[in-house]
């Protein structure tokens, strides 16, 4: 499996690609895809980077790992392919946007439209074995995606990081909050949302207010 990632990221991440852990990771992933069913499709593993280029990134949303059901994962966190039923967390994300911004609930759960506007939808783990949540964790993906977050923090300014839930909040240690805006809340999963930790967080309107202040184009959520 060759590493196919958009040119805009290659210069910034070339040191990671040369690390022993990354070579071991790619060998592991190649073996997993050869021996069984894994998600997303190989061509979509780095889709978050392909749709949102390094200098175009304005907002970063961090997920944990891909959906592990058939035809769901498309390489962007929380996103599913067109015509796929919306998973519970995505439903709650769309409900919050609907409540906050007064926009209609969308038909498609494909978030490529966000990525193309500068939203990096980054899962901490980029692959998963079918029907086995978390099966590719602790194989090297987290080291790689932590390096991505740190690189964005170090080399960019005025990014907006949306950290939802305990797992994502731990990534704040990688982010220079003097240079960037970090917004945190509970996770959009039903367990968290139904306890009052998600709805009403205002993150989508706040992100656009910040972008307006920075004289950047707001996101059409």
Automatic annotation (TrEMBL):
<keyword id="KW-0326">Glycosidase</keyword>
<protein>
    <recommendedName>
        <fullName>Uracil-DNA glycosylase</fullName>
        <ecNumber>3.2.2.27</ecNumber>
    </recommendedName>
</protein>
<dbReference type="InterPro" id="IPR036895">
    <property type="entry name" value="Uracil-DNA_glycosylase-like_sf"/>
</dbReference>
<dbReference type="GO" id="GO:0097510">
    <property type="term" value="P:base-excision repair, AP site formation via deaminated base removal"/>
</dbReference>
<dbReference type="GO" id="GO:0005737">
    <property type="term" value="C:cytoplasm"/>
</dbReference>
<keyword id="KW-0234">DNA repair</keyword>
<dbReference type="GO" id="GO:0004844">
    <property type="term" value="F:uracil DNA N-glycosylase activity"/>
</dbReference>
<keyword id="KW-0378">Hydrolase</keyword>
<dbReference type="InterPro" id="IPR018085">
    <property type="entry name" value="Ura-DNA_Glyclase_AS"/>
</dbReference>
<feature type="active site" description="Proton acceptor">
    <location>
        <position position="65"/>
    </location>
</feature>
<feature type="domain" description="Uracil-DNA glycosylase-like">
    <location>
        <begin position="50"/>
        <end position="211"/>
    </location>
</feature>
<keyword id="KW-0227">DNA damage</keyword>
<keyword id="KW-0963">Cytoplasm</keyword>
<dbReference type="Pfam" id="PF03167">
    <property type="entry name" value="UDG"/>
</dbReference>
<comment type="function">
    <text>Excises uracil residues from the DNA which can arise as a result of misincorporation of dUMP residues by DNA polymerase or due to deamination of cytosine.</text>
</comment>
<comment type="similarity">
    <text>Belongs to the uracil-DNA glycosylase (UDG) superfamily. UNG family.</text>
</comment>
<dbReference type="InterPro" id="IPR005122">
    <property type="entry name" value="Uracil-DNA_glycosylase-like"/>
</dbReference>
<dbReference type="InterPro" id="IPR002043">
    <property type="entry name" value="UDG_fam1"/>
</dbReference>
